[in-house]
Design a protein that fits this description.
Layout (H helix, E strand, L loop, with lengths): L1 E2 L5 E2 L4 E6 L3 H12 L4 E7 L11 E4 L5 H11 L4 E6 L4 H9 L4 E4 L4 H12 L4 E2 L1 H11 L15 H11 L4 H8 L3 H15 L4 H10 L6
Parallel strand pairs: 3-4, 3-5, 5-6, 6-7, 7-8
Antiparallel strand pairs: 1-2
Helix pairs in contact: 5-9, 6-8, 6-9, 7-8
C-alpha cells in the first residue's frame, strides 16, 4: 500500500512492524488502526523492549521520555534497525538526542494518521520522514553546528535542486519521479549526489542544508 500526494492509498509490499509503548490502551489502539489497513505481514506490540528475538522491518517507539534509551537498546542489538519515534511533546533536547541516534522518522502524535502511514512507508523503503515541525526544529538546532560542513558554494544542477526541494517536501521516490518525469533509478542517483555534495547522511541533513542556504523555505 502506498500513500499518494492526493491521499489515495495504493498497494505496496507488506512489511512487519513492532510497536513499543508503555500505555497499553494507546498501543493496542494504534495496532487496531494499522491492522485495519491490511498491508502488514505482522504487527506486534509490547510495553518494553525486552527479550525480543524476532526481526521487524520497522519499529515504532511511542515513549517521549524513554525513547532515547529504548533506541540505544535496539541499536545495541541491531545497528541497522529502522526506527520511527512518535512524540507527544516537541522538545529540543529530545529531538537533538534522537537525531544523534540517527532515527529514521519522527512523527508528532498530534499529526494526521495519514502522516504516520506515509512515514512507515518511506522508512520501509530506506527513506527518512520527519513532521514539518520537527524539520523546522532541525534547522534551529543544527544550522550552526560545526559538524555540518560549511560550503561557500555548491553547484547544483537544475534537476538536483528540483529533487532537493521535493525531498524537503517529504515526497516519495515515486512522487518525485512522477512530478519531474524521471525514472526511480534517476531519482535515487540524484539523491545520492545530493547527500555526497552536502556531506549529509540522511534526508534530515539535506533539509537542514536546504533551509540554511535558502533553497527551501520553512
Amino acid at each position: 500500500m502506498q500513500i499518494k500526494g492526493d491521499g489515495r492509498i495504493l498497494e505496496m509490499p507488506q512489511i512487519s512492524l513492532l510497536i513499543i509503548d508503555e500505555d497499553n490502551l494507546s498501543r493496542k489502539g494504534l495496532r487496531k488502526m494499522l491492522n485495519d489497513l491490511n498491508w502488514f505481514t505482522e504487527i506486534a506490540e509490547i510495553g518494553t523492549y525486552q527479550n525480543i528475538e524476532a526481526r521487524y522491518d520497522v519499529v515504532v517507539v511511542c515513549n517521549d521520555f524513554k525513547s532515547v534509551e529504548l533506541i540505544k537498546e535496539i541499536r545495541a542489538k541491531d545497528a541497522h534497525q529502522k526506527i520511527i519515534v512518535l512524540l507527544l511533546h516537541l522538545q529540543e533536547l529530545v529531538i537533538a538526542k534522537l537525531i544523534e541516534q540517527e532515527v529514521n522518522g519522527i512523527v508528532l502524535k498530534t499529526s494526521p494518521f495519514e502522516e504516520l502511514i506515509k512515514c512507515i512507508q518511506l522508512v520501509a523503503e530506506d527513506r527518512d520522514f520527519f513532521s514539518q515541525e520537527v524539520s523546522t526544529m532541525f534547522y534551529h538546532l543544527w544550522a550552526n553546528k560545526k559538524s555540518l560542513k560549511e560550503h561557500t558554494e555548491i553547484n547544483f544542477s537544475k534537476r538536483e535542486t528540483e529533487v532537493l526541494v521535493a525531498i524537503c517536501n517529504q515526497k516519495t521516490n515515486d512522487e518525485i519521479a512522477d512530478e519531474l518525469f524521471l525514472s526511480q533509478s534517476s531519482v535515487k542517483k540524484y539523491r545520492c549526489s545530493l547527500l555526497e555534495k552536502t556531506c549529509s547522511k540522511t534526508s534530515a541533513g539535506l533539509i537542514i542544508y536546504a533551509v540554511k542556504h535558502g533553497i527551501y523555505k520553512v
